[in-house]
Write a structure and sequence with these properties.
Layout: E1 17-19, E2 22-24, E3 27-33, E4 40-46, H1 48-66, H2 71-87, H3 89-100, H4 104-125, E5 132-133, E6 141-148, E7 151-155, H5 163-175, E8 178-182, H6 188-201, E9 208-210, H7 215-224, E10 228-234, H8 237-248, E11 253-257, E12 262-266, H9 272-284, E13 294-300, H10 301-317, H11 336-351, E14 355-358, E15 375-378, H12 385-388, E16 395-401, H13 404-412, E17 416-417, E18 419-423, H14 427-436, E19 441-444, E20 459-460, E21 463-464, H15 469-474, E22 477-484
Parallel strand pairs: 7-8, 7-10, 8-9, 10-11, 12-13, 12-18, 13-16, 15-16, 18-19
Antiparallel strand pairs: 1-2, 3-4, 5-6, 6-22, 11-21, 14-15, 17-20
Bound molecules: NADP nicotinamide-adenine-dinucleotide phosphate (NAP).
Length: 489
């Protein structure tokens, strides 16, 4: 059965870029694989630098009108888009599982999560307003307005092929900006299906463009074009730094959602069973391929053995498999190179003296090249590779520490500062530890932090700016101040 035939609405299977409301095929045919089976599920042409320029020109032309569309009208169009996404949630989830591999259950969750940013931003569009003030001059008044930044160029990763896009384009469009988006080459189908639904919702041509192609050719056009006023990026810290350098020449605004190295702290007084459940939810969601995934589990010495035992039972019971199998807990990694990377980190941990409690090997013989066994490791050094870099795989690694001061030092000993977690029942500890952690988001007795109404983003090398809530929309607006002087009293 072809991929389109597996969808209720075959026209959501789009394999061409979307520029100025039209489908543009581009050159060549880059394959998109199902990571679970390695089957080629689509071939996508490259629109190249010229396609990027055409999309930017379309977004720039559309901006002149879109910024004048009343916020109430923008809100209605976004609400329509939100409604269409929910009506087609099952097809959109199927595309996510097909191209990215996560379980269908996780994919359904992602579609709802992704849509929630459109709903939130649609509501927020009507509430973007300034303030009035008294300047220190006689007979004068001042006021501020929020104006849309302009054309925004965005680049997104493969791990949330739907939600990483809506989290950017919904607030941008709500604020009155237009967008050119380059999705990850592993997962273009979700982005293109979103574009199809945007068109059906009545979002005008040129307001939301999706371009597929070689990042090396498209990237510099997106960061260099004078019409582009802002770069939005979610992905690795290395690429984020590169884009920031490229954007510096035009002094363009940047919003960067980059990598993490989340500590998951379990204190002596914590509910250990709840903490173990939390580790499973944080670490093994999307097979560990999330930026907020618990990367270092720091157990206070008094409960470390109990936590390891509770986790061993849970991790060894996790079932990897195809995302469409209802009994699967964990889908594949994005490709076999990711498996090789994770395995190298595990081998390095072993060499550093860590003990593999369960798992610790690729599942090439049983499930195929993209699967890695759910793994629990303890006793490694805080300077081994998997403590310093994102694991981005289903490997939980436990470190022991004694005092609160040692725990905080260990937790902050990284250039990253995205998400952190702490499990404790002592409110004074909550206060001290959350004050001391250098992280943009902290879950206290909670393993997941993201939502449409709250700020998502990191400190240090994990990024600049926030997505979600009123902050997400503010990222896409310029604050303008007007002074009205010499008024007649
Ligand atoms: P990545 O390698 O940085 O790629 C992300 C995107 O950047 C892809 O679309 C990629 O396209 C593009 N890209 C790469 N080099 C580029 C260049 N020179 N110019 C323009 N675009 C370029 O990251 P990934 O492996 O896809 O995603 C995993 C990373 O994303 C992890 O570090 C994770 O923590 C982070 N992440 C962060 C958040 C957050 O909210 N903070 C959320 C999700 C993921 P090509 O593949 O075609 O090069």
């Amino acid at each position: 059965m072809s991929i389109a035939d597996r969808l209720k609405d075959k026209t959501l299977y789009r394999t061409a870029s979307f520029i100025d409301g039209a489908w543009v095929t581009g050159e060549g045919a880059r394959p998109v694989h199902n990571p679970s089976t390695n089957e080629v599920i689509a071939e996508i042409g490259d629109v190249g630098a010229d396609g990027a320029r055409a999309a930017i020109a379309a977004a720039s032309k559309a901006f002149a009108d879109w910024k004048r569309v009343s916020p109430f009208e923008r809100s209605k169009l976004l609400m329509k888009w939100h409604q269409l996404i929910l009506e087609n949630a099952s097809d959109l989830a199927m595309l996510i599982t097909l191209e990215m591999g996560k379980t269908f259950r996780e994919a359904q969750g992602e579609v709802v999560y992704g849509a929630s940013f459109i709903e939130w931003s649609a509501e927020e569009a009507k509430r973007i307003h300034g303030e009035t003030m008294h300047p220190p001059f006689p007979n004068s008044r001042g006021w501020t307005t929020h104006q849309p930044v302009g054309v925004v160029a965005c680049i997104t990763p493969w791990n949330f092929p739907n939600a990483m896009i809506t989290r950017k384009c919904a607030p941008a469009l709500a604020a009155g900006c237009t967008m050119v988006l380059k999705p990850a080459p592993e997962t273009p189908l979700s982005a293109l299906a979103l574009a199809e639904l945007a068109k059906r919702a009545g979002i005008p041509d040129g307001v939301f463009n999706v371009i597929c192609g070689d990042a090396q050719a498209l990237g510099p056009v997106m960061t260099g074009a004078p019409e582009v006023k802002m770069i939005g990026f979610t992905g690795s810290t290395a690429v984020g730094k590169l884009l920031m350098r490229q954007a510096a020449d035009g002094v363009k605004r940047v919003a960067l959602e980059l990598g993490g190295n989340a500590p998951f702290i379990v204190m002596d007084d914590a509910d250990v069973e709840a903490a173990a459940d939390g580790v499973i939810a944080s670490k093994f969601r999307v097979s560990g391929q999330t930026c907020v995934s618990a990367n270092r589990i720091i157990a206070q010495s008094g409960i470390a053995d109990r936590l390891i035992a509770a986790l061993e039972a849970r991790v060894s019971a996790l079932k990897p498999g195809d995302g469409f199998d209802a009994s699967t807990d964990l889908g594949p990694l994005i490709h076999h190179q990711a498996v090789d990377r994770v395995d190298a980190l595990v081998r390095n941990a072993r060499e550093s003296g860590a003990r593999i409690v369960t798992g610790g090997k690729p599942l090439v013989d049983t499930l195929g090249g993209s699967f890695y066994a759910p793994t629990l490791i303890e006793g490694g050094s805080p300077s081994m590779d998997m403590a310093c870099f994102e694991i981005f795989g289903p490997v939980a690694s436990i470190y022991r520490a004694d005092s609160e001061a040692d725990i905080l030092r260990l937790a902050n000993d990284t250039p990253y500062g995205l998400a952190a977690y702490v499990y404790t029942r002592d409110v004074n500890r909550v206060y001290r530890i959350t004050e001391g952690l250098d992280y943009g988001m902290i879950g206290v007795n909670a393993p997941m932090v993201g939502s449409a109404s709250t700020p998502f983003g990191g400190m240090k090398e994990s990024g600049i700016g926030r997505e979600g809530g009123k902050w997400g929309v503010e990222e896409f607006s310029e604050l303008k101040y007007v002074l009205l002087g010499n008024l007649t009293a």
